[in-house]
Amino acid sequence: MKRQYFGTDGVRGPYGGPLINEDLAARLGFAVALWLPKKGRVLIGRDTRYSGAALEVAVMSGLRAAGCEPVSLGVVPTPAVARAVRAEGAVLGVVITASHNPAEDNGIKFFGPAGMKLTDEDELQIEQRLPAWVTVLEPEAPAPVHERAAADYIAATAKLLPAAALRGWRIVLDTAHGATCGTTPVVLRALGADVIGLGDAPDGRNINSGVGSEHPEQLAARVLAAGARLGIAHDGDGDRCVLCDERGEVLDGDEILTLLATHALVHRRLVKNTLVVTMQSNLGVDAAITAAGGRVLRTNIGDRYVIERMLAEGATLGGESSGHIICSDVSPTGDGLVAALKVIEVMVATGRPLSELRRALKKFPQRTAALKVREKKPIDSLAHLPATIRRIEEELGAQGRVLVRYSGTEAKLRLLVEGPTVAEVESGIARLSAAVAADGLL
């Protein structure tokens, strides 16, 4: 059975729409509490969106009506919620966020007692328990607030590097006007860094607006202007990391993962010699890791699928090209701050600048497109797109690949073509786009 509400990363959509509103939030809270094998404390965090507080109250009301004890963590990064759930033995974690989406959107995602995202089957079972309505019980007192979650997260991540390890470092940090504004800069400064902030003045409506991991242009310019050692950008909820080297060149998740994995392989510290990535990652990752003596495993798009495969294989490093980096020996979910600190650790250990370390990955030419669609018709049912995909795949053979999928969180069709030359991949994207238009999706 197909899930109706949940996508690749929780339930997400425009605030006030059919997916994200106070009514559904309360019903989701009630349903997830029914699904839990036992009732108990549920920790709830959110990002800086203007709609977050109202949705938090609604989720709490549903949880409370079904017998759980909701506890607010306030505005904290997603990985801080995952950590708190695991550290404190809570029965569930909830994060109210739309991640890298604009401020008009919001979302709800859940974390189990181990601090990991729920499976597709878990989410289907929750949907099956959704009531038509919830009788909201007004609490006798306000929900308790956990004021230590952010501080505990800061203390734990700061221990990843020696004290004063960043003394003399100038770092440009873009926190996307989001949940990391009060955590990542605190950690970097505690380690001695001179931090130049971008996207650090949230007002509820500016999250991800021209800043953050989706918009690294300002970050790159500021790194060059300030003569910084590197730049770091997060998304709205802090589970992504995009970096910029001292030359103003942006590194994506594939480059970060390859850098970390090859360094670990050299020092025989990559667990099971395995890196887990998604179908989205560049074929150059496979080439680099294989040449260094490791292996690459691929999953469907979505960081939780990466984590599931990591657990199954006993691997501890994986992620996505978008910047979701999972270092499971430190954090049970993607953590943008942890990823940045792990890269800095390699920079310190080798004494090499980021512009050199990034050379571990030689990318195959790749082009992508995200086309806004009117509806998500099954791709196999379309008249032109499937045949175009097959023709391009036949032409590329083993030297490339084609990936076409609908976004799990937005009304978009995502296209990817990878191949031996720029001309071939650009032609492939153009042909796919034309087929999409001919099928009347745009």
Molecular structure report:
The chain has 4 domains: 11-147, Alpha-D-Glucose-1,6-Bisphosphate, Chain A, domain 3 (3-Layer(aba) Sandwich), CATH 3.40.120; 151-250, Alpha-D-Glucose-1,6-Bisphosphate, subunit A, domain 3 (Alpha-D-Glucose-1,6-Bisphosphate, Chain A, domain 3, 3-Layer(aba) Sandwich); 252-336 and 356-360, Alpha-D-Glucose-1,6-Bisphosphate, Chain A, domain 3; 366-438, TATA-Binding Protein (2-Layer Sandwich). 36% of the residues lie in helices and 19% in strands. It is built from 14 helices and 17 strands. Strands 1-5-4-2-3 form a 5-stranded mixed sheet, sandwiched between helices. The chain has a 5-stranded mixed sheet with strand order 7-6-8-9-10, sandwiched between helices. It has a 3-stranded antiparallel sheet with strand order 15-17-16. The chain is globular and about 60 Å long. The two termini are 28 Å apart. The model has no long low-confidence stretch (mean pLDDT 95).
Properties at a glance:
single chain; 442 residues; alpha/beta; Alpha-D-Glucose-1,6-Bisphosphate, Chain A, domain 3; five-stranded mixed beta sheet; 14 helices; 17 strands
- CATH hierarchy: architecture of the largest domain: 3-Layer(aba) Sandwich
Give the overall pLDDT as a whole number: 95
| Amount of helix | 25-40%
Shape, principal axes of CA atoms = globular
Structural class: alpha/beta
Q: What is the subunit arrangement here?
A: single chain
Characterize this entry briefly.
By secondary structure, the chain is an alpha/beta fold.
